[in-house]
Design goal:
Elements lengths: L2 H12 L29 H7 L6 H14 L1
Helix pairs in contact: 1-3
C-alpha cells in the first residue's frame, strides 16, 4: 500500500474529504539526502514470520478510530 492509498483509507475511515490528496512521486521533491523509492506499507513478512494474520489496514484504522473518538 502506498502512502497515497493509505491517506485515502484514512479519509474513508474518518469520513474526511480526500479531494486535496494528490498522488506524487518521490522524484518530485528536492530532498538533500537520498530517499528510497519504495515507501509502501506491507505486513506480509510479519504474517509469515509469526504465522499469525496481523490486522489489515482497514481493521487497524477502525480500532484507531474507536480509540480516538473514545477520548
Amino acid at each position: 500500500m502506498s502512502r497515497y492509498d493509505f491517506s485515502l483509507e484514512i479519509c474513508k475511515t474518518f469520513v474526511f474529504d480526500a479531494s486535496n490528496i494528490n498522488p506524487v512521486t518521490i522524484d518530485s521533491f528536492n530532498f538533500k539526502s537520498p530517499r528510497p523509492k519504495n515507501y509502501s506499507l506491507d505486513n506480509s513478512l510479519g504474517n509469515e514470520l509469526t504465522g499469525m494474520d496481523l490486522n489489515n489496514i482497514n481493521n487497524s484504522l477502525e480500532i484507531f478510530k474507536g480509540e480516538f473518538y473514545a477520548i
